[in-house]
C-alpha cells in the first residue's frame, strides 16, 4: 500500500507528466532498448519510430498519476494492455528491467535524485502496478493453456493461402504446421505474428486483427501495406512459408449479454475486426448496421463477402463510404454513399441511437467518432473502440 504522502507526491507529478511525459518515455525506450535490444521483438517498430508507442505509455503514466488513489477505475484499461502483453509474450522477469529504466529516465528528464520523495513514491507505485499486471497476465496465460489446443508464446503456422483483396490489402490464411485444431476465439480479437526479416538481428513482431469468424483449421488476417512487417509480408512471404503465431487476445468483442442493435463504424484497416464482428452479429440474429470508410481502391474490397452476410441477415445493413463515389446508391444489398462519415450522415443512419457502438480506425478517426456519438446523445458505456496505429489516451478519451 502506498502512504498518503506517496500518493500526494505522485498526484503532484501529474502536470509534469502531462507536459513532459512523451519526452520521458522516449528517453526510457531509447535507454532500455540500447541495453536490451532483444526487447525490440515485443514492440511494433513502426509505432516506436513514429512516436505513437511513447505517447501511449506517457498517457498511461499520466492516468496512473491522476487515479493513484483509485487504481481500480483503470482496471478496464489495465486488462486491455495486459492482453497486448500476453500476445507479445511479456515475461514476469522483464518488469524489473522496465521499472529500472523508467526510474532512471525520471532522474534524467525530470532532474530527480534518489533522495526525492517523488522518485521514491514512483518506485513504490511501479512495484504495485507491475504486480497487478503480472497477476492478471499470469491468469490470462493459464487460461490460454487450459483451452483445448492452447499453447504458450508462439507456434509455427504455414501460409496456406495468400489472397490480394485490393491494391493495398492482402489476406493471409494461416494454418498450424502440426495441423492441430485451433482453440475457439472471439471475433474482434488479434494475434501476434513474428517474422525473421533480413537485416534484423531479432525477430520482428506485429499484431493483426483476425478478419473472419472462428474456423477450426485456420486464422485469417488481412494486412494493409503500411509498415515494416506488413510490407515484408506483402512482398516477401508466400504460400508455404512459416510464421510464428500467438494465441488470440483482445477485448474488442461484442457484448454477449446485450441484445440491442449493433453499430460497427470503421475506417481504413479498421475494417479487419469488423468483418468477424458483423458475421457474429448476423449469426446471433442481432439487428446491425456496419459503416465503413476507406480510400476508393480499398473500400469495396470485401463487398462480395458482405453481400453474402446480408443475404442471410434480414435485420442487417452495410454501408460503404467514400467521397469519390460517383453517386450514392444501393447495389444488390450493400449500400454505397458518396460521403465521409460525419455527424449529419451518422445522425441520418443512427436515428434515436439505441444500441451498442463499436469503433475501429486511426486515433484521429476514433476520437472524432466518439465526439460525434456523445454529441448526439450516445451514452459513454455504449461506446467501445479499438485503435490502430498506437493507442494514446491523450488522443482517445471517452470521458
UniProtKB/TrEMBL annotation:
Residues 152-255 form the FAD-binding FR-type domain. It comes from the Bacteria. It catalyses: 2 nitric oxide + NADPH + 2 O2 = 2 nitrate + NADP(+) + H(+); 2 nitric oxide + NADH + 2 O2 = 2 nitrate + NAD(+) + H(+). Keywords: Heme, Iron, Metal-binding, NAD, NADP, Oxygen transport, Transport. Residues 1-138 form the Globin domain. PROSITE patterns: FAD_FR, GLOBIN. Its cofactor is heme b. Its EC number is 1.14.12.17. It holds the Pfam family NAD_binding_1. The keyword Heme applies. In the C-terminal section; belongs to the flavoprotein pyridine nucleotide cytochrome reductase family. Belongs to the globin family. This is nitric oxide dioxygenase.
